[in-house]
Amino acid sequence: MTDWKPQRKFCCAALLILFVVASRGAELADARKQFLSGQYTNCTTTCREALTDYAYQEEWHELLVKSEFALGRYESAGLALSNALQRFSWSIPLRLLGRHVFHYTSQSNRAPEMLEQIEGVISTRNDSRYRDAATLVAIGRAALLLRADPRKVMDNLFEEAKRQNAELREPYLAIGELALDKHDFALAAKQFNAGLKKFPDDPEMNFGLARAYQPSDRKQMLQHIEAVLEKNTNHVGALLLLIDHLVDAEEYEEADKLIDRALTVNRWHPEAWAHRTVILHLRNDEAGERTAHTNALKFFAKNPQVEFLIGRNLSKKYRFAEGAASQRRALAFDPSFVPAQAQLAQDLLRLGDETEGWKLAESAHKEDEYDVTLFNLVTLKDKMRRFATLTNADFILRIATNEAPIYGEEALALLSRAKSNLTAKFGVTLARPTIVEIFPEQKDFGVRTFGMPDNPGFLGVCFGPVITANSPAAQVSHAANWQAVLWHEFTHVITLQMTRNKMPRWLSEGLSVWAELQTDASWGQHMTARYREMILGDELTPIGDLSSAFLAPKTPMHLQFAYFESELVVEFLVRDFGFDAVKKILTDLGQGIEINKAIATHTAPLPKLETDFVAFARARAESLGPKLDWEKPTAAELRSTNFLASHPNNFWALQRRARESIAEKNWSDAKAAVEKLTQLAPALNGPETPWLLLAQIHRGLGDTNAERAALEIVAAGDADAIDAFERLIDIGLATGDWKLVRDNAQDYLAVNPLIAQPHRALSAAAEALKEDSTAIRENSVLLLLDPADPAEVHFKLARLLHRRGDEGAAKRHVLQALEEAPRFRDAHKLLREIQASQSSVEAPRKTAELAPGSRKP
């Protein structure tokens, strides 16, 4: 007979063990949740209580160390880590943690030993002990620190860990963080998005996405920061990312509040103090800056991350010299710290120190061949070796070799005019020549300017002594006047030097747009129907917050409106206080005086200024079509045939009637609607301008003179109006109005000099107007643009050169024309004329050679 009592005892013991294990697992899960939700104090309490019973379980120790460290209890974290390492001498995750934690403790000498010990542990132990998924991730992180190949680490360790344990979060975090470290933001976003789908409550996935979107999409970044802080109100990393954003937007008071909030979690957080150091530096508070800087390095005196962060943020404010000095300090702490090497290389290139900048970029790339920014930079350097360089006393212009002979000299001449005009206007003497680099590919402009290729929307950027710009070849979505762009960017050269790069973005951009308009009324920005609606709809940004409007605009239109509003502020200041007051503000900024104080000193206190500016802007908006009815009807009302009858001056209804009538070729109805618009809003610019519609109507009616008059109004107000320039050229060619052809061809070339049509038109106009030098130049350019009929172009050149008496060059071109078209009769005739002319010149020379007393060769 079987004794049931021992079996019952065994079963009870087994059930007790299962209960204890399950209970312990539940407690550990609760502790993880406490840590992820930012309940660090509670987590330390939970861990310490659990360790009285579960000291043999490594993760309790790890959570305790992380929680103590998150609270800034560095010595407690170090002591807890030392105790854990005594028990788990083989642990790779704990040693990896120790490499970071020990730097902040009195045991700082142990930090560099950790990696060496990890290598030793792996090499002397049975590999099977290190094949679980969590340990594979730790080994991979350590291998990266030991400069292992990142691709192999990702494929062989991180991805293997993901395959082993699909429920483990660490592989997603590790791959995402590796991608962020290498500036591969697309891969980072992909990994963190995958992780977020699997772990929707994990704030670290949102945090990774916020970092991935920071360079390209501030809206998504802010959404993910918000998600992080909903899940963990004490997430210092998310707070720091938001602080970084606020500093970029010049919202320093809000940034300060968030720094205080971060310091309530960890009063010694080095990066929080680093951000405060930046803000105090920007406020010219030297004593406060020294204190904050000391606090940032209080526990880890040679922390390169602190100096890197300070320098990077100063460089984002265009303070490249101060930023470079911080990166040099970071590299003094750790010469192998690649982020500082990369940032210093870019700072030096933006300062025009190209020799050291490119050399450092190449050496940093050798240190980290997977860093996307560094790879892009060294690849770009190879491309730029093939650029042409044009120089004069004031400029070094680098431009693609195929573009240089087309408009390079014209660009250099324009820059020289800008320097002469703007240095006199602002009373500035430039200390050094300005470097200007024009890129035929937008991605190369992006790399040179931002370190990454994907930064659409910028036409040019000025760093101070260096300007980068997209060439007309890179302007895909919307052609822009390259002359206006260069003038705009060179204005930045002037104002940045005046202020020593210490100016808010809104003032910098506002002055550059204002300088455009002062130079050419068709440049810059003008009031449009949409801008009018935004101003009167209370979408003006207060002057004190205006720089933030550039950072995360709701739409591309809102970004353009930020430029427009900034120019309006400058125009308002000049009107009410004079341009000298603006120059005095710039001088004060250069001496470190805060912007609001500088403005108040030379104009009025900011609250009054903002109130007066709103009135100024609203008056300007209301002056556009004051007798028009601007109220927007509903779609149904617009479709109604009776709406226009009851609202005869409604802008939107008149526009709709005009467009519908044009589509139906009902020219008389269209003309009535559009002429009313031109009478009630003659200055209306932009896509809603009625003058383009009126030109279209007159063309439909066959009234070329009236069409021309309407198009000339469009061209006078919009330097980018290629369609108007093109049609005016055609009208001029058809009527023999060569001045009209010449002027509009030149306007067209100021937008796009890389196509043949405007050069061909300008050549014909110049030849007709006996402007032979221009005609010769334009035909020479046409040969570079692969003309459809090169024989004709060579012939024209030969004829022009023959007319000027340059028979040698004329003969070369006529022979090239005949090479292209052997039966070209006019070319044969011209060749005989050239030969006859050469013979008549040579005959007297031979007679002179044979005259008495002459010396034969």
Q: How would you describe this protein?
A:
The C terminus is likely disordered. Helix 14 runs antiparallel to helix 15, helix 22 runs parallel beside helix 24 and helix 36 packs antiparallel against helix 37. With 857 residues, the chain is mostly helical. The termini are far apart. The longest helix has 33 residues. The protein contains 43 helices and five strands. Among the domains are: 67 residues, Serine Threonine Protein Phosphatase 5, Tetratricopeptide repeat (Alpha Horseshoe); 63 residues; 112 residues, Glutaredoxin; 119 residues; 59 residues, no CATH class. A five-stranded mixed beta sheet has the order 1-2-3-5-4.
What order do the strands of the largest sheet run in, or round the barrel if closed? 1-2-3-5-4
Query: Helix/strand/pairing class, anyone?
Result: mainly alpha
Poorly predicted runs are 10-23, 850-857
Counting DSSP E segments of at least 2 residues, the number of strands comes to 5
